[in-house]
């Protein structure tokens, strides 16, 4: 095990070096300790970047208890290297069953976190649903995924929550960078690495044209793929059309594509009727949070034989002799493939910084906030953006007094004079 | 003059052929006449696409009075071909002075419009400021530019307005297509046409990274330019950075660039201190609404001689022997250059459809709306998007019942079961 | 007419300012006069950039006689402004018939040029075919188009020529810049300007994937178009496929496309069988040298009515009610549309510099060259490239002595030692 | 070991499925056996795609003896799964020393190959230099890299070879696909996988703008990087400039870049003087054949400490406290990093098909070929292209008789008539 810890420490050191916003935050909070005395639960993929985030929360004074958000996405060496640090304790393991993940979540909740930094609302939903006694004294939570915000809003509609939540995913600093660039780039990298295939010249179907889908579609095309987008929302569909993508229903796309990547946040986006018309050799992967976007059960139902075509790729052979390939059991392709390492460090630097600064802000302002989902105040987003620009050494312009007045004016002589 | 009318009719016919959403709306309104009996003022660049919009409002039952929004952007032949139609009267002329434009606006207002479809709030501001008597019985207005919404909000802050306004520019269907693609593509086309220069290999500075700036920067780079973006907003600056653009203050960009395009909605974005460090041969153009983004007065103040380098390009020769070029006097480069024709037809089809459908919606719901700026209801935007998809023959997916339930659920067993 | 000359002078001044390689050559040849005493025929589109080229040949000591290469592509004001200069005489006019162009060519040949700088071998073919007496004492020629080189090679195969020719088009400095960037960018600019349509979201067919087609396809896609490429050469087809383009035969493309641009150097690339399956509203333009790529005669044969849809766009209405549009009668879209100005200045700076330097080289080495087509010596190409880099202020690396030795070695110990 | 073989078989099966051109060749040669009775040496990175190539040569009747071309790029499981097949024997192992590689090469040569399919002329150079007795009866060789062709040409200049060689790398079907798309895509994928970093927003320096460099630069930029290119050849430099890249000498680039990738085919492209001005955190990788492009010795000489920052990344800490990172010891980044798998299967399908078909052609025509490097006949290249198009299901146009005549004609009336 000590060798593991060493590798975990090495991974943390590399991540720290490439997460300068976190370094700036640790320096900022070294004396102020904004989370002092609060037990904070972190639920996420526990690998090196999450580790630096956990360390930074501890540096802000929190007692951190962490747990994994997915059975296949945490790294044991990083978990070990975190657990040896003061103020941090956690429960996560790679390659476990759903039941074992349940167990780890429950153990994390025994620490009675008063604040949660969540991924897909996993830990929060479990607390609300199965451990409502913990709601007493619970301050609030921050959520970093589209999926999680949908879930919290569903809870709020049912009156199931009595605490405020910040929709961190909805901030420009989160979804424009993490979703477009982080998911986009790392999903393709991992897909190519796992398959040893080429995007140039390939027919690729992207299901969903939210920020993740936009990133995937844009980057796949820029590497030479021909891309078809499927959507359920007419404006998103037009957005994809105007960006030059083929747009059509999945029934058409299924028969056309060679590679499929789902990023919708919904279930059964590729399902029985679609498998039936796919070409021999079609390959499917998922970039959305849950492993429900590709209907693996229906796929198995059509297969006469399921074999491992390569590590991380299952091959389903249909009765009519076609081979359909599913990557990483339909789990997140940038986290669950054999050599996956999740989002790039620079992206998580910003995403987790948004979570950390939003958490400090919510803790400081919790009393004034009604239960339910709130937008993260603009000043939090701006603060992280300015910190990031500073670490990048990028200067921008400032409004002159004359320009400020101009933006406030509307009378003809003020504008044209 | 009759020859002019013939050319105007030809231009209108070409635009009609390429504005299928307007054709669908005329058909929809042929029996319902949602604007029956209402005098509607239209202020915009009066060329062929605006003409089709005006025709469509008339087909919805309105009495339309139109006027130009800029001294250099209307086309006399189209004006003539509109004025011969029933239910339409207008006042616009190309190449007039600011004073003459004032006069035309005032004449339009003598028709006492009860609704205004405005560009940069030009006609509305004049009515509110100079003809407040017209506010009696005034129903409301729709505004299609960022600049105009800022002005209406400024009026509202001062309590100067008592009617509701729809911020049409802020809808996805407007700003994502009109600003990114319409402004982006047509500004570059007109700039290249006017200069006979090449973008490939050129150093281009884009001031502002809103939707217009994003479109300009992305398309210029895609044609082979190296692009630097200037911004005042840290998140926009980071967005440009992550998209791969050089980002820096104008003081740096001024010394670096060969071509400059402003798209900020603010004034004096390029000014004296910047002219002083520009290279010999630098060329400046504006894609923002008003001709104030480049400080032409300060430029003239530095010039020993001003000549016409080409039709539509003024050359300012500085005391130290540099030649600085200003396109179209700093007016909208896609409207005010000698051969300019404004946005492409397909873009204006959507933009003006948003204006028209939003106008009908506001007229039908005016009583329930408080004075001030309102977001256009989502159903209006969705309606236009669906109409556009239909005209394009693009099909999209629909949520299955199972998917709809999934989006509403949050409990662990509902999501993973 | 004097007003025309003034505009011609202005155009020449603007072009001179943006053709720094020509400025460097004029300086280089100011004392050496490499073309002294030689009458040089120039056949090209006579507009401002060609004018600067003509001036530069005169500055090299030549007596220049110029003529237009196309009935619709020369500009009278530039012709006038050239004809007033010493050592230059020319015959070109805009909007003439083929017969009038013949007449102008014949008048140019009365000056008995001993060297020709040609476009599509127009003047050379006429001399060889109709005025063989001029071959006596004829030194040679330089050709700048793919089409022209094919023609000269065909002449050589038939033994019809007794002089050497340099295939300037085949040099990297010519075809990579002029064809990819010059034709690509300016053809799209002129098409958009003429049609007032949008590329974003459009289905565009590019016929031919040589350098011109590659430039057109790449740039159209980068502006948001979906592009299908047609080819007759399997490797070019694969090249397009790997670059991410749809590839297929014209029979398929014809039914799919909304806009068609030909760039093949061949005739009847779009013909009767293709018109028959096109959509209503389809629009065709040509970027190849001759107006034969789109079979206009077959198109007319299918039309019940032909009208002008816009200046520069003919509308053919078929018996089954479809409207098919042909831009500029199928002539070069970047030269023959109403507001066309040909290639951008920076591109022609390099292309014409290649012609000029190659001409000087051929004149100096004509005795050692056999009749027929020759590759331009690499040193000529390199010379122009270095001059261009100097004018751009771009520095590059030089081989170290150790690197030079490495490139010469092959033994294992030399390479890995 | 048997488990290894199973994984090797799985890898070969996956590669076979994605190499349809090889399947077509095996079918074509099933009865003709064009290499019957010939011992063929294959020197390359021995992983799954090379395995399918080796199998295909055996299917053509050859006795194949293979060996690895690099100490770190072969895979033991694939080697084992090949060695169990009839007609194939080989010597390759991962992670060996240079001396051990020498030994394996020598063992391969004991089989007395009469034909070599080489990578960087490794096996050929050894034979020529150290085992000249094998030249007796040696038929010839095919070479697939730029570097190898340079070496063979150097041998030929010294009169060291008496056999013909086909420069397979120089065919369009090889270098345009393998170098641009194969090296480009897989080098970036492996770099991102190894570093867990993001390209979007990064400053990337590409040394060399041959096909490999062009692919790397284009794809890196398309993922959001800002790219500077260094070159020694003025035309390549201009090509990069016109494509929109920053171009400058390495002395400038070194101080500017965050990530450096070399692809020049030369040595010491990044060397002492460049390390001295690099930023803290700079990261270097190599995509050229030999590990000499980055001067690792000079880098070590500047380091106070060298540690492993991550698997596959060495960190050199300089005396002034900067951390410089070298990926995979400067060996091929797409082959020598911990999880590397080389070029994508579809690319190697074409590359190795060129090698195989060229080998058969050379064997059949060896007698007519002089010693030295020869271009691969165009028919070979066209054959592979047509086979590839067939497997892709892509149809292209054919010349009509009228078009064929047009391309042969040059007289005015033939062309315009």
From TrEMBL, chains A, B, C, D:
Binds 1 NAD(+) per subunit. CDD domains: SAHH. NAD(+) binds at residues 145-147, 210-215, 231, 287-289, 334, 343. It holds the Pfam family AdoHcyase. Residues 179-340 form the S-adenosyl-L-homocysteine hydrolase NAD binding domain. One of its GO terms (molecular function) is adenosylhomocysteinase activity. Its cofactor is NAD(+). GO terms for cellular component: cytosol. Keywords: NAD, One-carbon metabolism. NCBIfam families: PRK05476.2-3. This is Adenosylhomocysteinase. It comes from Thiohalospira halophila DSM 15071.
